[in-house]
Amino acid sequence: MATWIIIAAIGIAIAIVIAVGIERRSRREREERRAEAGEHREKAELQALRAREREDAARDELDRAERERAAAHAHTRRADEIDPDVVDESRSG
What we know:
Layout: H1 3-82
């Protein structure tokens, strides 16, 4: 067999080994990126859930505050109705 054929075969074998190695590394890097992306998605879902829970709690708190404010206004109106020192244009006659 001619020397150049042996050298060419060795060169081709080396090129194939390098190509396979590059492909394996690339595949492993893609898998690592997929895993990292999955972790980020899980964290995002958890944070979104926490945010929704906090929004719900805030809405509940706002509802309670509005009810308390309405009750305070009702007490103020009643106090004004019965207080003889409060001047009310609709009561004067």
